[in-house]
Design goal:
475 residues, globular, two-stranded antiparallel sheet, two-stranded antiparallel ribbon
Amino acid sequence: MGLASLDIKSVSGKSSSPPGGLLNSSSSSNLSVTTAATVAVPAPTNAMSGSNRDCGNWYTIISGDTCGLVSVANYLSLFDFYFLNPEIYANCSNLDLGVAYCVEPVGDIRTYPGYTITSGVPTITVVPVSFASVNTAITTPPPQSGFHYAPSYLPKAPGTPSNCNAYHNYNVSRENDCSYIAFLSDITTDQLIEWNPSLSSNLSSCSLQSGYSYCTAQNNGTTVDASNDCTPIDTTEIVSGTSSYCDWFLQLAGYESGEYMCEDIETDYSVTASQLTTWNTWLGSDCDTNLYANLLVNETRPVCVGVNASEPIGSAAPGPSKKPSQTVSASGTKTLSIGPTASGEVAGCKQFYTVKSGDSCTNIETTYGISFTQFYAWNPSIGENCENLWLGYAYCVQGPASSGSASPTAPASAPRQSGIAANCNAYYTVAGGDSCAKIETQYNDAFAELYSWNPAIGNNCQNLWAGYAICVGVS
């Protein structure tokens, strides 16, 4: 048996000698200065112990995050992110899932103690020197062209062309994931993958490989024709309400939010706003908001930008069926639903809520005074981590009289540690990558409660075991 976070540093905070040493955050001389908040906000309970508490904003790490992606998503230079969180190793190998890190300074970060961008720069004193007069009668050779910098590149990756205008070397001490490299090179991930066919088309696993260089700019004068930039996609990722006739998709990346919007798609792919929303009915009447709704910075989403000639004009594949605006049960209870509903919802639901932009499971639970256990039991399609909460869909927020309480027994297939509270009436099976902070947030529990109901996990959550059922609620 192992800890839940097998590939992440223990949350207990015990330090070890980092591979390659800690990042020296006071030795750079080529940095961008991050904009800042005006006042510090309280540190959350899951904040990293070594992060600077004079912080204007905190971000909790989720699966798939890297230091590069977090800094880009929060408009923070990578150097400043390391400075505000000095416990992070230089190669970002100890980023903790479920733990919050500081992503915004208060005021000018250059005023923080220990922050400098000039450390180590030598001072040169030029001593005046006298020279003899020059004999102008001496013939001098014509001027030379001077020194031209020739960058040194590693061998090109398999399939990478040799006529590119610029390349990027794999660097063991820096970020190498494709999204971050594309951002640095001011190109799209589609271009990076097209020019370097050895890279994975799955952005979650796409990364430069050791010992190679990769094309990051085509020769001057070369333009990328979006009309020929058709992207292979995973059909399981197609959003419900996308035209079934679609045979041309754009793979939208979450980190492009706010930069690449509906109007840009219409221009690049020569489609009208009406065509875009007809082929992607899930965009609704607010295209820009729904385009990136619930899409994380490291996730992608296919958008239909072309259909085959057999499709009737203006048609689209039917989305999920909508419930009537109001039905009345035999007992006289009114059931309301103003949006499409996902499969698997509890029968006899008494009240529905339609998800709006910015909603989360947590604020819906707070609004309707329910627990996540109840919300998940009534709406299993949302997933154990609320990863499938869809914008515009209606979810049950008041179950039938016989529903809504968690099972009083743990799953038969999940073992339990000793000492669990006798009056436990809700269990959760720990998954790989889980942390106490993540589970507390999901079930609205405090760590003191989680520890009192599950004393075997330890007072620092050091014994949270993957595959074991733990108590997350009592009667």
